[in-house]
Amino acid sequence: VRRDVHLERFDQLTGLLARMSRTVVTGIRHASTALLEVARDEVAPTMAAGNTVSALHREADQLVSVLLARQQPVASDLRLVLAAMRMSGDMDRMGRLAEHIAEVSIARYPRPAVPPEAHPIVRAMAEAATTLAEKSSLVLATRDPISAMQLALDDDVTDALVRQLFALLTAEWRHGTQAAVDVAMVGRYYERFADHAVGVGRQVAYLVTGNVVSGRI
Amino acid sequence: VRRDVHLERFDQLTGLLARMSRTVVTGIRHASTALLEVARDEVAPTMAAGNTVSALHREADQLVSVLLARQQPVASDLRLVLAAMRMSGDMDRMGRLAEHIAEVSIARYPRPAVPPEAHPIVRAMAEAATTLAEKSSLVLATRDPISAMQLALDDDVTDALVRQLFALLTAEWRHGTQAAVDVAMVGRYYERFADHAVGVGRQVAYLVTGNVVSGRI
Description:
7 helices, homodimer
């Protein structure tokens, strides 16, 4: 019976992480539509996704405490628990950052927060961030070490887009101070979101290989 | 002997956290001087502090893995290990955010990144953030539950200052787009820095009382 409970709790932890990762993808999609299509009705589902991720994060943290206290895992089981703690934290932040993006859109509604000039770059950032979230959800499910390692090193695209975005926000910018600040903040939110997706990739790589992938997010 | 090694590793972990918290205070002080006094020679010590904090964070993470695998702690020992993991992550971010603040100052040098109009609010944010970092370092040392709980709820000042700062960044702003973006980013960095200091307070409160202080940072 003890062994069954043991396995059940690990399955439960894996299940929580999988649900979190799918909810994070849902959240960033709603947030990006809210922002880029000026779609007010996309804000509530973004917030709902963020709240769900937070609730799952607290549940995962609780389960981690129980697992460590009762099962005293070692080796790969311990790695799973440690990686789960970190990934759960990363995904909680991703949900929150999606909320921040939706909050920017609602603060300016019905005016678009992103002026046409910055639209293509912000759209590319949204797509890159969503792709990273989808990839992190996938490697979490498959635990394929090659894909995990690739994801762990995969934030060059976002970095280049952030640089392009900030290059617009100079003396030539013609859309006013508030729009500049909005675009800068949104750029930063997508950048951090992508960083945390990469963080999830690093934790999956650690979980599977036992090696820590260096790099600060 | 086993008991001695056990105690030694816990002392080592506590020592690492104490060093991190002091280095974080040093880092934010250098960063704020770099930014507010346009002091180029304050940038290198900010970066050095950030790198030290990151190195200590990696060391703490390593020690946490060893402690969990070899000592299989329970009850208050387990709480210390879990809280240490989270606090170490918070402080690593604080070191990095101090670096980001110094980076803004250096990108505009010798021009001040913060125009006179925004200077008093940014200075107040810097002081509030530094005070929170000092308090988090103190509660980590004393583990006084009352102070820890106070710190865990103590980010109202920073939130009010952030709102004041962003209220300047509207159509009336006369210092150009880039300065607006710089001030917004710096405000955001101090805000996040303060959030993580509050996070440290929450973990000390959890460590001492066993209760989770709710709230998302």
